[in-house]
Design goal:
Helices cover 20% and strands 27% of the residues. By secondary structure, it is of the alpha/beta class. It is globular, with a radius of gyration of 19 Å. The structure holds iron/sulfur cluster.
Length: 295
């Protein structure tokens, strides 16, 4: 049974898996396996799919992820150039230490593209899983930046404040993340047994919560730094029947895979492009649930 699609006003976020692997092996990584076999990876096909998504939803958000988007600046430039400025563009990266492309070259890239990139999200964790560029390099990135930090399993609680101070001195906000393979509809909003939430509440000032069916953010303040604790479900389609008895597949993320294939979920489901051309839009259900999130 194939349900019609629904998505939020503006369109589902389009996540682009770049065709370049990273040089790391983070224990919580769910993308690594996607890079074992690189046959069929194609920047041209990815660009074709970017054009298709731009045509259907000219104001949707694009997110580049990997692998490592900064592994090939020439191809990243081509993909960025394929996206009109009507879209917000985000890049998830480690801002890698890599042979053949030094930090100054990457900084210059961010300078050249600062009008095209809304935010660069840099992975840094309490435990070091990757060779990290120095923090003062990160502080010179020309676009807005954010630190993404997965609080994985037995993370060292006593290092949280030092970690926050490390980036506070550059004014870079932090998004802490739950290992999303562990998120379920039952624990998405569960607070009492959420160890991370309790740790953050005990060390920082809780300000408020926003969220939707799919994901949420608990907002914290430490001195002058805004931090979020983000949880999201490990899939991106919610099946729901509306008041008229029509059942929809509600799409939150669409993926462009390394070979250009379009998927409607992280779970391997292909997007029916013609069906998406007739998608029904609903207002975005992300809303403030309590407190304040804008501070
Ligand atoms: S850097 Fe990112 S893509 Fe690479 S192993 Fe770590 S989590 Fe996975």
């Amino acid at each position: 049974m194939s349900n019609p699609y629904k998505t939020r006003a503006g369109g589902a976020t389009v996540t682009v898996f770049v065709p370049y692997d990273c040089r790391n092996n983070c224990p919580f990584c769910v993308n690594k396996q996607e890079y074992r076999d690189c046959s069929g990876f194609s920047v041209e096909k990815i660009i074709e799919s970017i054009h298709v998504m731009d045509e259907i939803t000219p104001r949707c958000d694009f997110v580049f992820t990997g692998g490592e988007p900064f592994a090939n600046l020439g191809d990243l430039q081509r993909m960025l150039d394929a996206i009109p400025t009507s879209h917000n563009v985000y890049i998830n990266t480690t801002f890698p230490v890599q042979p053949g492309c030094d930090a100054e070259e990457m900084i210059a890239f961010t300078e050249r593209n600062k009008d095209k990139i809304s935010c660069i999200n840099i992975s840094r964790h309490l435990q070091k899983y990757v060779e990290e560029s120095p923090d003062d390099v990160i502080s010179r990135i020309a676009t807005p930046t954010r630190i993404n930090c997965v609080l994985y399993r037995h993370y060292p609680t006593d290092k949280l404040k030092d970690f926050v101070e490390r980036f506070r001195k550059f004014g870079i906000p932090i998004q802490f993340r739950y290992d999303y393979t562990e998120t379920t509809p039952d624990n998405l909003y569960e607070e009492d047994h959420d160890r991370i939430l309790q740790d953050l509440r005990s060390q920082f000032t809780y300000m408020g919560l926003d969220g939707c069916r799919m994901r949420n953010g608990f907002h914290f303040l430490y001195k002058d730094l805004h931090m979020t604790y983000h949880k999201t479900l490990p899939y991106s389609t919610i099946v729901e029947t509306d008041e008229n008895g029509v059942t929809y597949d509600i799409l939150y993320d669409i993926l462009i895979k390394q070979n250009g294939e379009l998927h409607s979920d992280w779970t391997g489901v292909k997007l029916d492009v013609e069906k998406y051309r007739n998608v029904t839009f609903e207002p975005y259900d992300l809303h403030v649930i309590n407190g304040v999130i804008d501070f």
